[in-house]
Amino acid sequence: MMSRLRLLPSLLGAQAARLLATPRVQVSSCRRRSSEPPAASPGSRGGGVSSYMEEMYFAWLEDPQSVHKSWDSFFRRASEEASPGPTQSSSPSVVPESRALGSGRTKTSKLVEDHLAVQSLIRAYQIRGHHVAQLDPLGILDADLDSFVPSDLITTIDKLAFYDLRESDLDKEFQLPTTTFIGGSESTLSLREIIRRLESTYCQHVGLEFMFINDAEQCQWIRQKFETPGVMRFSSEEKRTLLARLVRSMRFEDFLARKWSSEKRFGLEGCEVMIPALKTIIDKSSEMGIENVILGMPHRGRLNVLANVIRKDLEQIFCQFDPKLEAADEGSGDVKYHLGMYHERINRVTNRNIALSLVANPSHLEAVDPVVQGKTKAEQFYRGDAQGRKVMSILVHGDAAFAGQGVVYETFHLSDLPSYTTNGTVHVVVNNQIGFTTDPRMARSSPYPTDVARVVNAPIFHVNADDPEAVIYVCSVAAEWRNTFNKDVVVDLVCYRRRGHNEMDEPMFTQPLMYKQIHRQVPVLKKYADKLIAEGTVTLQEFEEEIAKYDRICEEAYGRSKDKKILHIKHWLDSPWPGFFNVDGEPKSMTCPATGVPEDVLTHIGGVASSVPLEDFTIHTGLSRILRGRADMTRKRTADWALAEYMAFGSLLKEGIHVRLSGQDVERGTFSHRHHVLHDQEVDRRTCVPMNHLWPDQAPYTVCNSSLSEYGVLGFELGYAMASPNALVLWEAQFGDFHNTAQCIIDQFVSTGQAKWVRHNGIVLLLPHGMEGMGPEHSSARPERFLQMSNDDSDAYPVFSKDFEVSQLYDCNWIVANCSTPASYFHVLRRQILLPFRKPLIIFTPKSLLRHPDAKSSFDQMVSGTSFQRVIPEDGAAARAPGQVRRLIFCTGKVYYDLVKERSGRGLEEQVAITRLEQISPFPFDLIKQEAERYPGAELVWCQEEHKNMGYYDYISPRFMTILGRTRPICYFRIWDWPGHASHGWDRKCSGLQQARV
Ligand SMILES: *[C@@H]1O[C@H](CO)[C@@H](O)[C@H](O)[C@H]1NC(C)=O
Question: What residues does the Transketolase-like pyrimidine-binding domain cover (predicted)?
Fold first, then answer.
């Protein structure tokens, strides 16, 4: 059928054929034909006469009886004549006469048409050459999951026919268009040479996808880099370096395999070329001025990267395989594949200093992507590198995860946002064409695993990993791209996985054919060495010496790894915080200074918060009212929620602490209370951030509305917070319940990061929470989940030492707070920075309290000498005569105000005491005990608005029991069971519930 297919272009005429959709479409319509009957009516498809004729033709090919007799005889005649070029047969009369083909052509028009044809041919290679490139080292799978070869790119004869060119044209000279560089310094080439050069650029071991980029300069740049004749030639020095790097990569894996044959190693075998690939990207970037590279990668090949890219001391890697390590020891088990790392060294190739860090990651492949970007952004920020000239990130991905995990897409969407961009990332995909045991044809719907990168117009360079020189070339172009256009780029290393998912796994269960081929596959090192030896670049002896040399290095390190106890987890930090801890990594003190600030600071911040620092700046009248309100409060020495937050941020900025608040709509605030960015009502996009006009030498404040992503953005801010302890980094959820789409970051990094990676992080999560307002949706930030993941022991009776508060904070995995007053919020934010260590802080923030007339704090509660109160005790009538009190209600957050109202409505101020928990976890055992003991005759009640299985009750209840014993149980009341039934809980008798509980 193929030879008959070739008839089509000549039937249609070259121009008409070119006007058709791409040749891929033609043939897929051919495929479709086989299952569907041909469409009967002409013009039923958008393509007009040509596609109608095409349909007829394919239908006729399948079954000559299926078309009208007139078509049958037309195609029959045409195929008998079968000469390429315009046919003289006139098509059946359904085709309008004027559109019929085959009118005579002049010589000039033939010349023009031939040139146009050549131009189309060149373009076809540029656009679709990658479909034909030889990318799979195993030669079994097609990297684009489609064995179809576009008909215009099959063989010379087909191509010529498709473009209405003849064999005799092959030796004719053609003028080259300006959109190609294959000519080098020549402006014309023979057609034969044009095809040869295009094939060598686009259809060998490199597959280039870039023609979808809608920037002519960028496309030209890529074409120049790859099409210019001779670009991929290497000096023998370069080849020897490449070989030496391959030796290290390969022999490192071999060494691990020899020493720990029964251990999981997640080796790189099958993609050893990744080591020289990464080193090339780093060398090239260093040459262009990069001083700091931040890497994120999954576990496959991680040890090799640590050893040979970052150059971590080998003995520190080997000692983690010590069989004496217990499962609970730091660095044991799979942890070695997840730890972070920071290392500064001289880059040998460029002789410049370079700092490399590898960010600790969980097994959730790709979760580390936004974290790396955030850390990169922070490092750029602290260095004043606003253009991304000094600091860059490299992300290594697996093919299955790159296509499968949505966070990849979320991360790409941060790549060009001013407050989130890192000015370009080099992505390297280790495309071993398998995901654990799953075949790529079952794992993705896109042709390549890299298609997600197209959303940001990133060029994608596919390369056969068994051709090390092609890999190196592609990587150096990728690095140049990043440093020229400051945009993302993807290198897709099409490789294989020599063993199972790990070395103990049997891949033949599921991939028999692939693994038969893999067992036959000559390792890339041997292939490349043979090539260099054959061409005389190295001798066999030199090659063997190189191997012996590296093996010796490994052996010696192995010896040292046994000699001394060198395993120390502190070597495994991706961001050391110099000077923040003691030399032994402990906090410098176990106290926290008072968190209040001098009154003049509060007054000054209040003044700025209620003014417009820029001249001729027109703000919205509604906002003027808000600012007047702030001025008024400042005069009266009080602050509401928004103003207290202003004062917390502002006072930290004054102390040199950078503050960054990021999330959806944070600039104004979901509830329109914050207004940190003022918008000029007259001039489009003219804005003002008064917080940056507080003091001339203050630290900078960043407030940024994010993309509508939680997973990506929380990950990003976590990474940002990782870079330095001297910054308050906050992520706010638009509504608290949205945090659950970032659950992976919360579970894998925020709650457990320190335990897994000895990694402190002071990120703050602001989660609007409260059952009022938006109905069942958007009500709950799920406090119960955060409390359930809090690590303080509910049953251990604590030792009340002098520094109980701080040491409890030091031991916890995170802090959970729900503040009831603006002052409390102010203090807890400031304490976050004044603590001598860093812990994540989760704050459930209010909605109704933002405007509640009673939810205001006096400056007296914020001035010097005041501090965060973990518990705010009752201070009214009940507190003055505690013996009279019948009921002591504990609560947290906004229900306090409802309870106070209810109490006064019932005139029970003397009988009922109400005490607030501002910090829920770690649990303030000491203060709760004190409070309860002050009211010996009172029954204890926990009141919340959440259902019993939600909110705080399950967390506080066993802790009350621990501290007070079983004789004074605490029972659950709900402030309202249904809207409008505010007193329901209040009137309930406690005793019955006590029984149930005890
Ligand atoms: C880097 O990103 C910033 C923020 O979007 C932008 O202002 C700057 O122009 C970028 N630099 C380059 C060189 O593209």
Answer: 639-852
